[in-house]
Write a structure and sequence with these properties.
Anaerobic Ribonucleotide-triphosphate Reductase Large Chain, 753 residues, single chain, 3-stranded mixed beta sheet, 16% strand, 26 helices, 40% helix, 8-stranded mixed beta sheet, alpha/beta
Length: 753
Amino acid sequence: MQITENARLVLERRYLIKNEKGEVVETVDGLFRRVSSAIAAADQNFDKAADIKATAESFYQMLTNLEFLPNSPTLMNAGRPLGQLSACFVLPVEDSMEGIFETIKRAALIHKSGGGTGFSFSRLRPKGAPVNTTGGVASGPISFMKVFNMATEAVKQGGTRRGANMGILRVDHPDILEFIDCKQDLTEITNFNISVGITEAFMEAVKSGADYELVDPSTKKVTGKLNAAEVFDKIVSNAWKTGEPGIIFLDRLNRDNIVPEFGEIESTNPCGEQPLLPYESCNLGSVNLVAMLEEQKDGSYRIDYDKLAATVDKAVHFLDNVIEVNKYPLEEIEETTKKIRKIGLGVMGFADMLLYLGIPYNSEEGVALGEKIMSFITARARKMSQKLAQTRGAFPLFESSTLKDGAPVRNGTVTTIAPTGTLSIIAGVSSGIEPVFAYVFIRNVMDSTKMVEVNPVLKRVLEQRGLYSDELMEKIASAGSLAHIEEIPADIRRVFVSSHDISPDYHIRMQAAFQRHTDNAVSKTVNFVSTATKEDVREVYMKAYEDGCKGVTIYRDGSRDGQVLNIKKDEKKAADTAEKQTYPREISPRPRPAVTMGMTERMRIGCGNLYVTVNYDENGICEVFTSTGKAGGCPSQSEATARLASIALRSGISVEEILNQLKGIRCPSTVRQQGMQCTSCPDAIAKVIKKVYDMQKNGTPLIPSPVMGESAGKKEEVQTASKAIKNCPECGAVLEHEGGCVICRNCGYSKCS
């Protein structure tokens, strides 16, 4: 078996068995023997006389020849005590505290076993919605995503696989704008990929510029409207900045849901390519297309379709066995998985196959070949699944599925195009259906490990032409592409195109070509150069919709730090460039004007009244003051909030950004009382700022007011102090004032303790 040094390093770091000292005690050959024997053993579940040794040997040959590799948990755990072989799972997130934290617990168990998880947070009521059981208000989906993220961070999956999550929110959820923005800070929610769940109706509204309705999932009532085109542009803008969110076309996922009576597909696995029902798992594997090539006498290559067919047959057999021998982390997952028996056979090495065949990725011929290969694989995989059904039976929900009118099949779905990541390193080929990212690059894997690689196909061609040299490799590494290196012949440059040489249009066309013949979905990232515009991103998202894709993910080079793949450019040059970039080092607020205009409004809060003064000058709102009644409150905190808001306003921070930071902050003494105008002192300040801001925008005149001092509002303060706070925020009983504080005789609540 021939593997590269990089492959050996990956296997030793992640896959081979280690002892308690961390020393590798398994060989690469031993790994494949272990996996083959464990998976072959499932044959006896259907035929006691099955030749397990022959099946194991067949699987072993397929694996060691690198013709097919299963997903990483299968390589890691097959034949070992853990025995969890699935890559990813989808768990439901119910709209209750109990349901949410039960899901967090279950996700932790899955991460511990080496799997990733996908969630839809679309069932959770929006931020600020009432919670009848507690008298409080909901904190919304994004707050719980952060809790999920923290739980994932605490589980390191035994040191072999970090937790990975997919978070999805429907575009018609009232908190969708907050969701779209939730990863602008790249230090937040770091263990999640996020995608917006898009509907067909929304996309049509985008094209027409129409508004669409937001719906509270708990009440099913319309809570507002947004302009679809503006929301879509916000998605595009954030994706341009950070690569997220991606988009998932929910209606298309459910159009291909083979068991609609069993449930609705609302989420995918963390890479977006495997739509799953709640409690389903995905069991994936990939055919190495480079291993399907046959070299001719003249040195050219052809696809050996007979070998491809035989490999697909064995791979489907292998993956169906995985479902049998898998030790599932939850009973519900085992039950659901075995009822539908989805497998996902995909490919890797497609771009390298094109290189061997002399076909440019960004060509009509390349797209046509991609569609032809995937059509062949899916048809053959279904045929093999039918054959397995003859001896093992169809999947249990077959008679209630959308497939019931056809020949019985063993597996509900058979094909998926997944990212192959470290599997493609083991096989020594390009990943999935992605084009080659760069022909000489540094690959950062598993924390700080770095690998320098030269594409073997390019190296072979250059050596055949007598062009290969270390100096030329350095030049390619520095440039990041062959496109403009004149000493390389034009015919080589035309074929050896890198990801950034390929137009976004061809990226999507290739994804769509594979999607047309894939049961589940296709994992594909459209890579943009750093100079790509937001309009470029918008066009890709629209083309993905128009070409029939089920989702799309983009990445603009340089929009995130620590990206997994880095073209080896001159590091000093990059550092110099970064140093020359201008960033605001100091922001100073403009002086307070001598004369201001404004208004003061009394806001009822949970512990009395808060008087909020908002003043402005010809440049806009410039200061905020607060004063509290004698009934209580948090005068120091309110004053601090107002002062910081004033400094921010005079420093050029937008009013909208300040409102976003203040509005919706909750205080128990406020949210647990009925009839409150606000949820806290900061929320009250935000509401008055917004009122003044809106009046300014609309041209509504304001009456001049002096800067609010200690005497302002004094009369009103005296009149209302005695009735400022009446009921206990804990139990609702009447409060009593004692010793300068308030106390509840019913439950013992004290505002001062």
